[in-house]
Amino acid sequence: MNPQDHERACRLIDAWHVEGIPAPEQEWLDAHLAECTECRAQALTNERALQLLRSVTVRADPALVSVTQARVRLWARQLRERQARLRALWVSCALSWVLGAVTAPLLWQAMSWLGQRFAVSQAIWIALFALCWIVPATLVGAVLVWQHSRAGGVNNNSEVFL
Amino acid sequence: MANSICLFMNSMEQETRELARGLRRRDPDLLDELIARYHYRLFRYLWALTGSREAAEDLFQETWMRVLERGHQYSPRWRFETWLFAIARNLAIDASRRRQPESLDALLCPEDMRAPHELRDPDSLTPFESAAAGEQAGRMGALLRQLPPDNREVLVLRFQEDLNLDEIAAVTGAPLSTVKSRLYRGLEALRNLLTEKEA
Question: A44 to chain B, minimum CA–CA distance in Å?
Fold first, then answer.
């Protein structure tokens, strides 16, 4: 038995566990192990080490498991509620913009009439029109952004790369 | 034979797709089932990663909360456990950064890799079996503690959790070649430690 054979056998013994080896290599290794006590001992040590590793059995406390299940359920409910609130806000935001767009001509006419009626300068009633038209949608939008950043800010310090 | 393998693969794909849909919906029943199914493996992995039962318990809860929050990020092309371990690992690294910003190695080089007090998955253990398993786990814990952290992690993922090499690369974020070399080095180191211990 030459040293190259031992070296090859050692490499194959580890490779068999780590990534598997092709059938011809496996046959050669089996034949070598049948004859070489030194390599067989190494193969057995590997087996024992991995068996020991696999035998490590650590169990979570059953109370921890049930507490986790309860917490996850509660958090799931809270997240669903938060999502429903966010959806309602989105809808109201969209509605306010649509209503704003639809009523813009009417509001313009109303402001123009009020401006003439009370002799207010054109710059003022145009500014008032812009305020009436923009404020509701802007408010809803701001709340929406705030809510969204709050939801995103919960435990976002670690990304999952998969 | 080929047909049955094909059927098996199809049913697995179907299962992971349904899992992904359930996770996107944040289905609480599905999450309950997943916790019941994977608690043992997750806890064992966290214990190997942190070396401390208390840290593993904290991270255990946090991991499931994160699974709930980030369920929409799960891709059916991975097995669920691969994604779960990746989340657990990232959280463990975050926790380690918060505790000791100067050293990530501290996470994987725990001071006290103690034997856990409850051992073996089946609930019905005789007191003798319990003691024997505890002793064995303690011995293995001591051996594992002596391994370099990177090597220890891949050994645990490969031989305890039965992940394939691609999955280990995905969990650890390391290239496949690095995963392989860590496994070879880890296996050699473990073998040498066992031989030394027995000599």
Answer: 10
Q: Is A155–B165 a contact, with Cβ atoms under 8 angstroms apart?
A: no
Mean pLDDT in order along chain B per 10 residues (199 residues)? 64 84 92 94 90 90 94 90 95 85 51 41 47 63 83 93 94 95 94 83
Give A150 to chain B, closest Cα distance, Å: 14
Q: Is the pLDDT of residue A34 over 70?
A: yes
Interchain proximity A58–B44, CB inside 8 Å: yes
- Residue of A52, A55, A58 lying closest to B47 (CB–CB): A58
Provide the token pair at B83.
């994604």
Q: CATH no. for residue B90?
A: 1.10.1740.10
> What is the residue-wise DSSP string for B114-152?
PPPSSB-SSS---HHHHHHHHHHHHHHHHHHHTS-HHHH
A45-98, pLDDT tens digit by residue?
999 889 888 887 788 889 999 999 999 999 999 988 888 888 887 888 788 778
CB-CB under 8 Å, A69 with B160: no
Whether A137 has a pLDDT exceeding 50, the answer reads yes
Long-range contacts of A145-150 (CB under 8 A, 24+ apart): A147/A82, A147/A85, A147/A86, A147/A89, A148/A86
Interface touch A157/B94, C-beta < 8 Å: yes
User: In which domain, by residue range, is B59 found?
Assistant: 1-103
Is the ipTM higher than 0.90? The answer is: no
Tokens of A123: 């710059």
Instruction: Find the CB nearest B65 among A50, A54, A155.
Output: A155
Does A90 lie in the same domain as A41? no
Q: How far apart are CA A65 and CA B57, in angstroms?
A: 10
Number of structural domains in chain A = 2
pTM of the entire predicted model? 0.74
Residue B199 lies in a domain: no
Q: What is the pLDDT of residues A91-100, one digit of tens each?
A: 887 887 788 8
